């Protein structure tokens, strides 16, 4: 494995295992600079969303990098309001315009808005069939959302992006989606930073001469989770990509798995209100 290693999605499209997440980065120089730095360091995968308000800066930094568009994997997401208002298609084209691209690599339903995600999926299938999206997927789906979707879907989601980290391992949910050939993406892989002071992680990091962030990110990679930690700092963007010259042994993986306490730092897909 190296920074360019990919996971092959169920439609044959390859997604880099490591990317940069840009949630909570302000549009403009902050996002542009983080994306620019990540591309310089070798990242080829950026995870944004309509709701993050920074698609335009992501697109600008990518265009100005001089790296061919097809060498960079970009994910964006359909926001809840568009599903509630029934203007999914317009919303997709607006994302495309803000990014300044003629296609998106991965387009996700951001949250399973009740009574709306099934219709949204059928619209995404049409956009996929038109060649405007290379892969379509979901986010924050539990198995029961998938069961509802499956009743009418003609395309199986390529990925499910869910909150995953050592304090929230979601073993049953992961096994369910893996069983369907749906790739898993970890959001808030560092628990928004809250996991970095855990003593078990710190001890393993110390023994391996690595940082806690590197140990946690490596734990994700060794489980085939696709991961995109967020940082605007150059030193951390570099640190978070230096994951390919060490590994965790079975005992260390087991110790980290045992940290699970079903603790969420974000909303619960069954009770979110936004
Ligand atoms: P994260 O787990 O990536 O943590 C980010 C925090 O950790 C930041 O405060 C950052 O300063 C700190 N950090 C990063 N690297 C560090 C390092 N090496 N050392 C010390 N601190 C470090 O949290 P996140 O941003 O919530 O999640 C990552 C990405 O996941 C987002 O940017 C977004 O792309 C995606 N996401 C998706 C959803 C969804 O609903 N689909 C929800 C949340 C996040």
Notes on the structure:
By secondary structure, the chain is of the alpha/beta class. The chain has helices at 29-41, 55-65, 80-85, 88-99, 117-129, 143-150, 171-179, 199-208, 212-221, 234-239, 250-257; strands at residues 6-8, 14-16, 20-21, 45-47, 73-78, 104-109, 133-139, 159-163, 183-187, 226-227. It has a single domain (6-257), classed as Alpha-Beta Barrel (TIM Barrel). The chain has an eight-stranded parallel sheet. Strand 4, helix 2 and strand 5 (73-78) form a beta-alpha-beta unit. Helix 2 (55-65) runs parallel beside helix 4 and helix 8 (199-208) crosses helix 9 (212-221). The longest helix is centred in the first third of the chain and has 13 residues, at 29-41. The radius of gyration is 18 Å and the shape is globular. The protein binds nicotinamide-adenine-dinucleotide (NAD). The site of nicotinamide-adenine-dinucleotide has 25 residues, from helix 10. The site of nicotinamide-adenine-dinucleotide (NAD) has 25 residues, from helix 10.
Element layout with pairings:
Elements: E1 6-8, E2 14-16, E3 20-21, H1 29-41, E4 45-47, H2 55-65, E5 73-78, H3 80-85, H4 88-99, E6 104-109, H5 117-129, E7 133-139, H6 143-150, E8 159-163, H7 171-179, E9 183-187, H8 199-208, H9 212-221, E10 226-227, H10 234-239, H11 250-257
Parallel strand pairs: 3-4, 4-5, 5-6, 6-7, 7-8, 8-9, 9-10
Antiparallel strand pairs: 1-2
Helix pairs in contact: 1-2, 2-4, 8-9
Bound molecules: nicotinamide-adenine-dinucleotide.
The site of nicotinamide-adenine-dinucleotide (NAD) has 25 residues, from helix 10.
């Amino acid at each position: 494995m190296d920074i360019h290693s990919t996971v092959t999605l169920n439609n044959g499209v390859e997604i880099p295992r490591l990317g940069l997440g840009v949630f909570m980065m302000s549009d403009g120089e902050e996002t542009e600079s983080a994306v620019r730095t990540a591309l310089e360091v070798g990242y080829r995968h950026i995870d944004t969303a309509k709701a993050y308000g920074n698609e335009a800066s992501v697109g600008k930094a990518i265009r100005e990098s001089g790296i061919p568009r097809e060498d960079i994997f970009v994910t964006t997401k359909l926001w809840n309001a568009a599903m509630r208002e029934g203007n999914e298609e317009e919303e997709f084209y607006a994302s495309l315009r803000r990014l300044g691209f003629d296609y998106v690599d991965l387009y996700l339903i951001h949250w399973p808005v009740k009574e709306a995600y099934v219709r949204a999926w059928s619209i995404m299938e049409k956009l996929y069939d038109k060649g405007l999206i290379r892969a379509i997927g979901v986010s924050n789906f539990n198995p029961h959302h998938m069961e509802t979707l499956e009743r009418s879907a003609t395309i199986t989601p390529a990925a499910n992006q869910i909150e995953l980290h050592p304090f929230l391992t979601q073993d049953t949910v992961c096994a369910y989606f893996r069983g369907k050939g749906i790739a898993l993406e970890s959001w808030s892989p560092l628990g928004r930073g809250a996991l970095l002071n855990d003593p078990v992680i710190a001890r393993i990091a110390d023994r391996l001469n690595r940082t806690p962030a590197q140990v946690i990110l490596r734990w994700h990679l060794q489980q085939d989770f696709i991961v995109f930690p967020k940082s605007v700092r150059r030193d951390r963007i570099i640190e978070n990509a230096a994951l390919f010259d060490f590994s965790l042994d079975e005992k260390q993986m087991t110790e980290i798995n045992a940290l699970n306490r079903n603790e969420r730092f974000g909303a619960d897909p069954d009770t979110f209100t936004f």
